[in-house]
UniProtKB/TrEMBL annotation:
The keyword Mitochondrion does not apply. Residues 571-704 form the Glycosyl transferase family domain. This is Glycosyltransferase. InterPro entries: Glyco_trans_1 (IPR001296), Glyco_trans_4-like_N (IPR028098). GO terms for molecular function: glycosyltransferase activity.
Length: 761
């Protein structure tokens, strides 16, 4: 018996098609399916195309009870609800009710599957995520539909959404291409009002293509908004006029089949239209929470953009570039369809049903990525935004290189999530006894994390690479059950035992931490350092052979180039990062105040970030009566921070050496500033010089007086021409993208795999 949790939004055709596609896969695996549909309408259930022998459940407890009883049978399989899940109270408790059933089913192996799932961050809470995480660990197959969802749970594979294969099969495609005479348009009911520029762009795109715009309704709630938009465009509406999901889907597919392209901010409108041969376009005037990530996971070049502030011509030219590259879109669609079918074969294979610990050919993850830092988390509201950005982009680079990865992050292990809520300012100024206690907690927690790594890796095949980010008092790779057969790579972002003890002053067991850090570095086949200066420090610190160190600086997320710059009348100087003493932000504020007093244009300083010095700086600004000059945004989600930074003219980075002999860090903010088109005022580093070579406007200073004179010069000078700015942004992406950075590491690992590895392991 096959059990399938299949409950979606009743007024959403997209929720029908992705669940129906998974149902077809499950139906091919057994003669009968028991399907939980909740309170779905008859129209929703009819559109799922259930067989007469399939059983419909509407009571969740009854469904779970029946599934638990039958889980003792060998020919049993349970499929989790595909689509979007939320880490909130209701859904997490529903998952918790399944845990006893999943434990009972282990008598014949892991036979529960979670495929085509993405995590919605609305109402997210780590406590509720923990309950869902238990069910993730008990599943035999986890396949996520976007990289961020996989990163949140740290295990499983990534594949396109089920709906990418819910359309006409290649073998049944019509010989004659239908006349495509429409431009479909659909917008969310809860999105912001469309601007006049957006409406003008849609109208202009349709006129330029010689086709007719039609506003459509794929989600019933969108109907009032659709009529408003149709009035603005002067066109007709394909509304949802009856209670039949099947009939509305038929009407929509007929429209998509006759459309050149479809514009929408709804994921499954674009996916369904793609299945009928229309080009998907996602120009939207709000944050994109779904489309970019899901299409990227399916292997597509960008089809969605945040076009707030764009003029109509730019929107039209961007859309036309995608439409004119139809062959690439069609190729990506075929690839996505085939990948979905491969996942379907994996789900219905005997190995998946009987819980075989190995994976299907070609799906073994090539990299196990280990993060031992207790405070590091990957959510939007992470208290460690720098490490989060580095890790997420590195994992994305692996995906772009065609490498699968499993993430092992300490904060995701049981009882470890609480550490990720600690802010850097929470332990600043702590007394000696408190720090000794914290050191003891670190040691015990490190052992606990190591045991979790052992338990999770012993049941998995060996990866090609174990990649560990160095952390204080941690060595996760030492606990990895397959470490002897993989290339062992360690990434160093500093000499952490020294920095933590001497600079941050939150470590007393420096000798123990130093010895463990040296051991981790010496046992690696390859050490990745973020700068040449750090490589030299590591040679002295751990007595390493310089030939075993690969220098890979930070990189840039190529998606930043798509964020439009938002010009302002005044000159905006900005800083983003940790608000701590060594950043010398008090001197920055005073310098900007002096520059502003002699400037012709208005000047403003904005500071994004949190830290121990934040309250002191606010008090300083208040005492000096500089409230009109300085704005403190505090800690922000990354997307919100980037939205603020697009208004800046100048980005500040004043990294200085601390307890080290030189400034050896690779400032991530430099790459973000450059990709956003800002002029950069910073201290000297190889990163700054490299970005300048790529065309970024970089001004290096040595002391306070030079810093101030550089600011005065920039504020007084005319702004760079927008075309020059955009060219430099494109060059920065070309030269410093994460994909290339990751490729450098993979090439070195490949050479090691075919040669001799470290003898100190």
């Amino acid at each position: 018996m096959i059990y399938y949790w299949c409950a979606g939004q009743d007024d959403n055709i997209g929720d029908v098609i992705l669940r129906r596609r998974m149902l077809r896969t499950l139906q091919s695996a057994g003669p009968r399916c028991a399907v939980y549909v909740g309170s779905a309408s008859d129209g929703f259930v009819e559109a799922l195309a259930l067989r007469p022998e399939d059983i419909v459940h509407r009571n969740f407890l009854g469904f779970v009870g029946s599934a638990t009883v039958h889980s003792l049978r060998k020919n049993w399989l349970f499929g989790f609800n595909p689509g979007e899940i939320k880490c909130n109270r209701k859904q997490s408790l529903m998952h918790a009710l399944l845990i006893p059933m999943m434990l009972v089913s282990l008598v014949h192996g892991r036979r529960c599957i979670r495929v085509g799932v993405g995590v919605g961050m609305d109402g997210y809470h780590a406590v509720w995520r923990a309950l869902i995480a238990v069910t993730v660990r008990l599943c035999g197959v986890n396949v996520w539909r976007d990289a961020s969802s996989r990163a949140l749970f740290g295990t499983g594979d990534i594949a396109p959404d089920w709906a990418f294969d819910e359309g006409p099969d290649d073998s049944t495609a019509q010989d004659v291409e239908p006349d495509r005479e429409y431009l479909g348009v659909a917008v969310r009911y809860d999105g912001p009002a469309t601007s006049a520029a957006w409406v003008a762009a849609v109208r202009s795109l349709a006129d330029g293509l010689g086709i007719t715009p039609v506003v459509l309704v794929q989600v019933r709630r969108d109907s009032p908004r659709a009529h408003e938009l149709a009035a603005s465009l002067g066109c007709e509406v394909l509304d949802w006029i009856d209670e039949s999901h099947a009939e509305q889907e038929k009407r929509l597919r007929d429209l998509y089949r006759r459309s050149v392209a479809v514009i929408s901010d709804r994921l499954h409108v674009l996916v369904m239209a793609l299945g009928e041969g229309a080009i998907p376009l996602g120009p939207m005037e709000h944050r994109d929470n779904k489309i970019a990530g899901h299409f990227a996971a399916a292997g597509f070049a960008p089809v969605s953009w945040d076009v707030r502030g764009w003029v109509p011509d730019r929107i039209v030219s961007t859309a036309r570039a995608v439409i004119d590259d139809r062959d690439s879109v069609d190729d990506a669609a075929r690839t996505a369809r085939n990948r979905v079918r491969e996942v379907g074969l994996r789900v219905t294979s005997r190995r998946a049903r009987e819980g075989d610990r190995t994976r299907a050919p070609g799906t073994t993850p090539s990299v196990h990525y280990m993060v031992g830092g207790f405070r590091i988390s990957l959510g939007d509201n992470s208290n460690t935004p720098g490490p989060r950005t580095h890790i997420v982009n590195f994992l994305r680079g692996l995906e772009q290189q065609g490498r699968q990865s499993d993430l092992y992050i300490a904060s995701s292990f049981p009882m470890m999530g609480r550490f990720s809520t600690i802010r850097q300012s929470d332990y600043t100024g702590a007394g000696g006894s408190t720090i000794w206690i914290a050191d003891a907690v670190r040691v015990v927690s490190a052992i606990w994390c190591g045991l979790n790594v052992t338990a999770r890796t012993i049941v998995k095949p060996a990866p090609q690479i174990i990649y560990e980010r160095v952390s204080v008092l941690q060595s996760l790779t030492s606990f990895h059950a397959r470490k002897g057969s993989a290339v062992r790579i360690v990434e160093a972002n500093g000499v952490l035992s020294r920095e933590t003890a001497q600079d941050r002053k939150v470590l007393r067991s420096e000798r123990l931490a130093r010895a463990l850090e040296r051991r981790v570095l010496r046992r690696a086949d390859l050490v990745v350092a973020v700068s040449d200066r750090l490589a030299d420090e590591l040679v002295d610190f751990a007595d390493l052979d310089r030939g075993r160190i690969l220098v890979v600086p930070n990189g840039v997320d190529e998606r930043l180039v798509d964020l439009p710059r938002e010009g302002t009348a005044c000159r905006v100087i900005g800083f983003v990062g940790s608000v701590v003493k060594w950043q010398n932000l008090d001197q920055l504020i005073l310098a900007v105040s002096r520059v502003e007093s002699g400037a012709c244009d208005d000047v403003r300083l904005e500071i994004v970030g949190d830290g121990a010095e934040l309250e002191n700086l606010k008090e300083m600004v208040q005492r000096a009566n500089l409230g009109d000059l300085v704005t403190f945004h505090g800690r922000m989600a990354q997307a919100d921070a980037f939205a603020v930074m697009t208004n800046w003219d100048i980005g500040i980075a004043g990294h200085q050496k601390s307890s080290s002999s030189s400034m050896y860090h690779s400032p991530l903010k430099l790459y973000e500033y450059a990709a956003l088109g800002l002029a950069i005022v910073c201290t000297d580093s190889s990163d700054a010089r490299s970005l300048a070579t790529s065309g970024a406007d970089v001004r290096i200073f040595d002391d306070t007086s030079e810093f101030e004179s550089t600011l005065r010069e920039l504020v007084a000078a005319p702004r760079r021409h927008p075309a020059d700015v955009e060219r430099s942004r494109a060059a920065v992406i070309r030269d410093h993208a994460w994909r290339a950075r990751v490729g450098t590491v993979l090439d070195a690992a490949s050479n090691l795999a075919s040669g001799e590895r470290s003898s100190t392991r």
